[in-house]
Automatic annotation (TrEMBL):
<protein>
    <recommendedName>
        <fullName>Bifunctional protein GlmU</fullName>
        <ecNumber>2.7.7.23</ecNumber>
        <ecNumber>2.3.1.157</ecNumber>
    </recommendedName>
</protein>
<dbReference type="GO" id="GO:0000287">
    <property type="term" value="F:magnesium ion binding"/>
</dbReference>
<dbReference type="GO" id="GO:0009245">
    <property type="term" value="P:lipid A biosynthetic process"/>
</dbReference>
<dbReference type="GO" id="GO:0008360">
    <property type="term" value="P:regulation of cell shape"/>
</dbReference>
<feature type="region of interest" description="Disordered">
    <location>
        <begin position="528"/>
        <end position="569"/>
    </location>
</feature>
<keyword id="KW-0133">Cell shape</keyword>
<feature type="domain" description="MobA-like NTP transferase">
    <location>
        <begin position="18"/>
        <end position="147"/>
    </location>
</feature>
<dbReference type="GO" id="GO:0009252">
    <property type="term" value="P:peptidoglycan biosynthetic process"/>
</dbReference>
<dbReference type="GO" id="GO:0003977">
    <property type="term" value="F:UDP-N-acetylglucosamine diphosphorylase activity"/>
</dbReference>
<dbReference type="GO" id="GO:0071555">
    <property type="term" value="P:cell wall organization"/>
</dbReference>
<feature type="binding site">
    <location>
        <position position="392"/>
    </location>
    <ligand>
        <name>UDP-N-acetyl-alpha-D-glucosamine</name>
    </ligand>
</feature>
<feature type="region of interest" description="N-acetyltransferase">
    <location>
        <begin position="278"/>
        <end position="569"/>
    </location>
</feature>
<keyword id="KW-0573">Peptidoglycan synthesis</keyword>
<keyword id="KW-0012">Acyltransferase</keyword>
<dbReference type="InterPro" id="IPR029044">
    <property type="entry name" value="Nucleotide-diphossugar_trans"/>
</dbReference>
<feature type="binding site">
    <location>
        <position position="35"/>
    </location>
    <ligand>
        <name>UDP-N-acetyl-alpha-D-glucosamine</name>
    </ligand>
</feature>
<feature type="binding site">
    <location>
        <position position="122"/>
    </location>
    <ligand>
        <name>Mg(2+)</name>
    </ligand>
</feature>
Length: 569
């Protein structure tokens, strides 16, 4: 097994403490989450930095917070609750610069005498290998400080590293200096410049002595790191430089442009890793795979596809094109195309075809969903849904059950092989295995106050345009004729039909008596010209105004507004 950078450190290496600076306001990033909490590759930038630091196994890790302190601490508590040791926090009460933030952290490490590794929280591309090499070279040389550098064509926002004639550290040129060009540069520059990454390894004793001296001398108390560096230089303490082998490692994100850049760099890194592992990524420029996702060799990712969160994709599965899979498991040989899948399990050889949305659901092996919506539903093996179906929460389809075109179903179960082929509503029902619900049928489950269940037995044949009025139970093997209205229980093996048209019966005043205070009761009272007050369902008395008198009927020879008048000739 390959060991991590921290495990490879020399057993005689000094103790290590890590400091991550996350107190800045990040105004250039614009509105939204605190800068270090912006996600890159499905993980906050601060999380990337802390993960890289953790590979070195520091004895203590201190995160300096300030602006959005509560948000950062909440993130740390949630993301690193099980870390050993968990990151600590130190609060920078006022924003006094890099040096002041570092002083805030050093004050949390009294008595520590080893190496202090310092990084900004907005450098998500840092790797454990790069940090380990920085610390190793620092300790081997016995430096007071060693800075991490890289060579970039665009140095905007970075401090330039100036070296002596023999190549040793001479100075850091602050980012706000205008004279950042060398003789011979063209209008667009283009020459690689060595810049500081904002990542340092310090000898703890030398750093603490520098701060003590600056504080007692009445200077700026080291609010700017340059003050600390000047102290080291004045006391002939050695400052070293470690150059990152991959300059992308040092890229930070202070604004949206830089954030987009580091996201693209990490996307490319992740995709190169998966390509090398045997995953077929058709268009790496449009495939976005989060760091927490897992793909098996032989999986296929088609263009414009996102595999996000803690998703997993099995061997032979095809994801895409134009697809998003988030926090979901896609089994071997499955297909998800032009669809969105969230917090769901897709079984082996299942098919989620174009324009489907699957959320918090389970789809069994070999099942198929086409152009439909599933929300908190479970499909058994070889079940079928769609096209254009809506499967609502708490619905279960057993093996080979079917919900077809323009069907809505909620809080219901379909037994093995049961079918609702088209144009129906099924609510609060249990339908037995092998049963079939004819088209244009509906389950009336709600009386305006309470919902009731319907039970349909095994191998029942419900005819077209049937209405089932819950609560009702239909026995096994029942047949029903077309347009049957079923409001009473039906014994097994019976044929249920509705003979002729049902005679209509009106019950005056039923709504006001049985649904007092409802919107319907108030509307009815107003239509009938009643006055006085009605009591609403929550006990509030509401006055009902008298309606205006109805208009006089038209004279015999006067035209009236009839259906004939509104129809086309």
């Amino acid at each position: 097994m390959t060991s991590g950078p921290g495990e490879d450190r020399d057993q005689h290496a000094r103790e290590l403490a890590a400091v991550v600076l996350a107190a800045g306001n990040g105004e250039r990033m614009g509105p939204g989450p605190q800068k270090v909490l912006r996600e890159v590759g499905g993980r906050a930038m601060l999380g990337h930095v802390l993960d890289a630091v953790a590979e070195l196994a520091p004895r203590r890790t201190v995160v300096v917070t300030g602006h959005h302190r509560a948000d950062v601490e909440e993130y740390l508590a949630a993301r690193f609750a099980d870390a050993a040791p968990a990151p600590e926090t130190a609060v920078q009460e006022h924003q006094g610069g890099y040096g002041h933030a570092l002083l805030t952290a050093v004050n949390r490490l009294p008595g520590f005498t080893g190496t202090i590794l310092v990084s900004c929280g907005d450098a998500p591309l840092l790797t454990g290998d790069t940090l380990a090499r920085l610390v190793a070279e620092h300790e081997k040389a016995g430096n007071a400080m060693t800075l991490l550098s890289g060579r970039l064509p665009d140095t905007t926002g970075y401090s330039l590293v100036l070296r002596s004639e023999v190549g040793e550290y001479e100075a850091l040129l602050p980012p706000d200096r205008a004279d950042r060009r060398e003789p011979g540069d063209g209008p667009a520059g283009g020459r690689l410049r060595e810049v500081g990454a904002g990542v340092y390894a310090f000898d703890a004793a030398a750093l603490r002595a520098a701060f003590d001296d600056l504080l007692t001398s009445g200077r700026t108390a080291g609010e700017y790191l340059a003050t600390v560096l000047d102290h080291f230089t004045a006391h002939d303490l050695r400052i070293g430089i470690t150059v990152a082998e991959d300059p992308d490692d040092i890229l930070g994100a202070n604004d949206q442009v830089q954030l987009a850049r580091v996201r693209a760099v990490l996307r490319d890194r992740i995709n190169r890793w998966w390509l090398a592992a045997g995953v077929d990524i058709a268009d790496p420029a449009t495939a976005w795979i989060d760091v927490g996702a897992r793909l098996a060799a032989g999986a296929v990712v088609l263009p414009n596809t996102r595999v996000l969160g803690a998703s997993s994709v099995g061997c032979g599965a095809v994801i895409g094109p134009d697809t998003e899979v988030r926090d979901s498991a896609v089994g071997e040989g499955a297909l998800v195309e032009r669809s969105t899948v969230t917090a769901s399990d897709i079984g082996a050889d299942a098919r989620v075809r174009a324009y489907s949305t699957v959320s918090r659901s389970g789809i069994g092996a070999g099942a198929e969903v086409t152009g439909s919506v599933l929300d908190q539903a479970v499909l058994g093996a070889s079940a079928q849904v769609g096209p254009y179906a809506y499967v609502r929460p708490d619905t279960r389809l057993d093996e080979a059950a079917k919900v077809g075109t323009f069907v809505e179903i909620k809080n219901s179960t379909l037994g093995a092989g049961a079918k609702v082929p088209h144009l129906s509503y099924i609510g609060d029902a249990d339908i037995g295995e092998g049963s079939n619900i004819g088209g244009l049928s509906g389950f009336a489950n709600y009386d305006g106050r309470k919902k009731f269940r319907s039970v349909v037995g095994r191998n029942v044949r419900i005819g077209g345009q049937n209405g089932l009025i819950a609560p009702v139970t239909i026995g096994d093997g029942v047949y029903s004729g077309a347009r049957a209205l079923i409001a009473e229980d039906v014994p097994p093996g019976a044929l249920v039909i509705s003979e002729g048209s049902l005679k209509q019966r009106n019950i005056p005043g039923w709504v006001q008596k049985n649904r007092p205070g409802s919107a319907s009761a108030i509307a009815a009272a107003m239509a009938q010209g009643e006055t006085g007050e009605l009591e609403t369902a929550d006990g509030v008395r509401q006055r009902v105004p008298r309606t205006t008198e109805p208009p006089e009927p038209p004279a015999a020879n006067e035209p009236s507004t009839t259906d004939d008048e509104r129809s086309t000739p």
